[in-house]
Amino acid sequence: MTSLPTADPYLPDHGDPSWSAQHYDLDLGYDLVRNHLRGQAVIRAVAVEDLSRIVLDLSSLRATKVVLDGKSPARYAARGHRLVVTPKQTLRAGTTFELRITYAGTPQPLIDKHHGDAGWEELTDGVIVAGQPHGAPTWFPCNDRPDDKASYSLTIAAPHDYTVVANGTLTSRRRGSSATTWVYEQQAPMATYLATVQIGRYDVRELAEDPPLLAAIPYDAGEGFEAGFGRNAEMLTTFSELFGPYPFPTYSVVVTDDELEIPLESQSLSTFGRNFLTDDWEAVRLVAHELAHQWFGNAVTLRRWQDIWLHEGFACYSEWLWSEASGGESADDWADHHHARLADDDQDLLLADPGPELMFDDRVYKRGALTLHALRRTIGDDAFFDLLRAWVSTHAGGNVTTADFVSMAVERTAPDGPDLTDLFVTWLHQKPLPDLP
After folding, report:
1. HEC secondary structure over 363-377
2. Distant-in-sequence, close-in-space partners of 298: CB < 8 Å, separation ≥ 6
3. Are 13 and 6 a contacting pair, CB within 8 Å?
4. Are strands 116-123 and 110-112 parallel, antiparallel or unpaired?
5. pLDDT tens profile 315-337
6. Using the 8-state DSSP alphabet, how is residue 325 labeled?
7. Which H helix or E strand runs over 243?
8. Distance separating alpha carbons of residues 40 and 383, to the nearest angstrom
9. Suppose 221 and one of 217, 291, 319, 402 were both cysteines; which one would form an S-S bond, judging by CB atoms 3.0 to 4.6 Å apart?
10. What sign does the CA torsion over 228, 233, 236, 242 have?
């Protein structure tokens, strides 16, 4: 039996680099009582190489019908959490094609030995989807790799007394005899792991109009919501000034009735547990962290998982920037604090390539943030924030590597600025923790 492709060594047995999705049209119906999901996915795609097979990622759900360009393929079969479709004739490189896959089953999180479980998860009364980094196949067939971004149409039918929140802009809501159907459009290119659906009994509030800032929260959230999220609009304005305009048409915050250990990142929305309804800094900093991911991670997305610091280091540094802007401790103070703590930790992490076991280690977050602060101290505030804005405006909608960021930083500071070679080598490509400039 031939082996199936892996697109990224950090996430084995996910993704097929031989084809690329252009658009996902997902039509889903969910029975909360039985935890049963039925769906039809229409995937418009292009062959990157000659294709004698099309390998998709789909976990715990059974494909019951597959149509390729309006006709039945030669065959299709499930292999573990992959779906292999064999066309009757080889699809030549550059050929566009359409897959229509009907599927159903009981969705459940997918467990990875390095990253634990991720994906579709039942709450006490509702559902969340935690996609990062390997959870997308638990609810739709996809090419699960971060460098394959596509637009999405999401149609979800759920019981009448539940609210559905998904990526993008809500374009319609239709009440039928047995369910309400919600339709969302995400036109901006999006990686599979950033796609999400959140279902619960929520009170939906508008916090700001430009861009629309929405919150779906428990009906009994009380004063805790104002404590935890009352400055979300101000936070969005601050980050827009620092990083450039907010990159999507809307931003939504979902607060589940359940407590969640960590918040969930997804494109154009973030999800938090009830335990984040507080003004404690440990909660507020993560509200800032998830919002910052809209620029760093969602608009500008890594090409390879080894470059995760481009997401988490930037979002962690944004926590310090919000502290500074909102009257708390300065970024200098936070940098000194976390540098001292990292100096006492093991010096065995390579920031530009931490390995799958350490890619979500807290040291990636903090050392990534410290790398940015070292750069800021070296080139000055004006050049630093000009660089961040240029980084987003140049690469929004696309994928990047560490080398891309280094190249842009060097180009924008040369020939009159400081030499950044040693800075990037010591912070990114060597394990010992450098001194802050």
Report:
1. HHHHHHHHHHHHHHH
2. 190, 194, 247, 248, 265, 266, 267, 268
3. yes
4. antiparallel
5. 999 999 999 999 999 999 999 99
6. H
7. helix 232-243
8. 48
9. 217
10. negative
Q: Please, what's the b/e burial string for 339-378 (b: 16 or more CB within 10 A of its CB; e: otherwise)? A: beebeeeeeebebbbbebebbbbebbbbbbbbbbbbbbbb
The pLDDT of residue 415: 82
Question: Hey, how many other C-beta atoms are within 10 angstroms of the C-beta on 206?
Answer: 9
Omega within 30 of 0 (cis) for the link into 87: no
Q: Please give the distance of CA 61 from its chain centroid, rounded to a whole number.
A: 22
Is residue 1 packed enough to be buried (19+ CB in 10 Å), middle (13-18) or exposed (0-12)? Answer: exposed
pLDDT of the residue at 414? 84
Given a cut of 70, whether residue 1 has pLDDT beyond it is no
Rounded distance between C-alpha atoms, residue 237 and residue 211, angstroms: 10
Q: Which helix or strand (DSSP H or E) is residue 338 part of?
A: helix 331-343
Q: Which residue type sits at 390?
A: A
User: In whole angstroms, what is the distance from residue 330 CA to residue 351 CA?
Assistant: 24
Domains and CATH numbers, the chain: 1-197 (2.60.40.1730), 202-294 (3.30.2010.30), 301-428 (1.10.390.10)
Q: What is the pLDDT of residue 365?
A: 98
In this predicted structure, the answer to whether residue 299 has a pLDDT above a threshold of 80 is yes
Given the structure tokens 């010992």, which residue do they identify? 432
Residue type, 189: P
Phi-psi region of 148 (alpha: psi -120 to 50; beta: other; left: phi over 0): beta
